[in-house]
Amino acid sequence: MNDDEPVFKKSRWGTNRYVYNPNNPVGLFLIIASSVFAIVMILLMENRAGPFAPAPSPTWSPPPAQDPWPFPSSTP
After folding, report:
1. What sign does the CA torsion over 35, 20, 30, 32 have?
2. The pTM is what?
3. Which helix (H) or strand (E) holds 19?
4. Is the separation of the CB atoms in 34 and 40 below 8 Å?
5. What tens digit of pLDDT does each residue of 3-13 get?
C-alpha cells in the first residue's frame, strides 16, 4: 500500500468532482464510515426512532369544558 496516495482524487466520470480514494487508509475509512452512517440513518427513519421519533403525546389535559364567562342576564 502506498501512503503517498491522496485522500481525495478526481472523479473519472468527466466532472470536476473529487471522490474518496480507497487506496489511502483514511479514504477507505471515510468510505466505510459514511456508508455505515447512511445505513443507520435510513434504519432510524424507517423505524421512526431517534431524532425521527414522533413527538410524545401530551400528559396534561385541560379540565372539562366550563363556561369562561357567565351568560349575560336579561335583566340589568
Report:
1. positive
2. 0.66
3. strand 18-20
4. no
5. 689 999 999 88
